[in-house]
């Protein structure tokens, strides 16, 4: 392995978080994606989807809802994750 690949390998590994942070990283990504999807759907469902609304107010409404939904979803995923792991263990053959 040449020197460039050695340095590249070390840099890539130093930018990753330790494994012990996996539950927090999982909760962050899960809540970020799910909160955004839910905000998109709920905002669309709560207003008539006219061309004017979609081009102007829709994205602002989604982002406004997301400011509250994301932190709430993050905390919920952190607290619910252990329960979900136990429920999955009850339902799936080991």
Write up what this structure looks like.
The protein has 94 residues and is an all-alpha fold. It has one domain. It contains four helices and no strands. α2 crosses α4 (58-91).
Question: Could you give the topology of this structure?
Answer:
Elements: H1 3-14, H2 22-45, H3 51-56, H4 58-91
Helix pairs in contact: 2-4
Q: Count all strands and give the number.
A: 0
Sheet of most strands: none
Mean pLDDT: 87
Helix content: over 70%
Q: Beta-sheet strand percentage?
A: under 5%
Low-confidence stretches: none
SS element count, helices: 4
Number of domains: 1
Q: Which value, in Å, is the CA radius of gyration?
A: 20 Å
Distance between the termini: 41 Å
Sketch the topology as an H/E string, one letter per element.
HHHH
Please state the structural category: mainly alpha
Shape: flat
Provide key terms for this protein.
94 residues; single chain; mainly alpha; 4 helices
In short:
It contains four helices and no strands. It is an all-alpha fold. The mean pLDDT is 87.
